[in-house]
Amino acid sequence: MRQSVVNGTRDTWAQVNGALVAIGGRVMATRPVQDGFALVRVPDVKGVRAYVSHQEMGRTDRHGDLLLPNLLAYYGNQISIADADVPADRSLSYKQLLLATPYRGGAIAEFPATREWRVTGSLTVVGNPGILRGQRALDARLIVETPSGPIDSWLGAEGEFYLEGLAPGTYVLHVTSGDIGCDATLVVPVSDAPVVRAGDLPCLRGNVEPGR
């Protein structure tokens, strides 16, 4: 800012420097870009600290984004995030990476934080409520088919189950214990709760498939 007085008249000038950067489907205001830049993205997770060469640069916004305006172009910049800032119900595959950008060009440093729903409940066989209790329940095998592959688990002594890694949706629980088999329907809702409690689910008797 500058001021001058000429013939008793005061004039003031102000100069503002900045840049608008379009990256990752967003347009963001930032300091002037002199070299390379990057968008740190932890999808939908706000308040995550981001670092360049172990120097804190800021925190992600409500969309999970933070723009880094001054990286060294054509150089492997070490970008990392504070995994302690990521909620416990999300899983990080990695927390740092090397990123090289072109001169006055940008790149996205994405750190996927996958939400893992944890679900608890119990099973009761329709028509024979005590059959999945005690040792019979402990010997039972529970299989859930998911788009990423089957989840294999076991039951507690009272027919309880605990499952991780399920996205919201409807699943069929296949249960076998010796020559006894039953199927139950599990609905996982969208929830912010650390553990979704499904309650007691009815399990319908059926034929045991070979190999189950």
CATH homologous superfamily placement of the largest domain: Outer membrane usher protein FimD, plug domain
Gyration radius, in Å: 27 Å
Number of helices: 1
* Beta-strand percent range: over 45%
- Distance from first to last alpha carbon: 77 Å
- The averaged pLDDT comes out at 86
CATH architecture group name of the largest domain? Sandwich
Shape call: elongated
Outline of the structure:
The chain is mostly beta strands and 212 residues long.
Description:
The protein folds into 2 domains: 2-114, Immunoglobulin-like (Sandwich), CATH 2.60.40.2610; 116-206, Immunoglobulin-like. 2% of the residues lie in helices and 56% in strands. It has 1 helix and 20 strands. The chain has one helix spanning 135-138; strands at residues 2-6, 9-13, 19-23, 26-30, 36-41, 49-52, 55-59, 65-71, 77-81, 90-92, 96-99, 106-110, 113-115, 117-125, 141-146, 149-154, 160-166, 169-177, 180-188, 196-206. The protein has a 7-stranded mixed sheet. Strands 7-6-9-11 form a 4-stranded antiparallel sheet, with no helix packed on it.
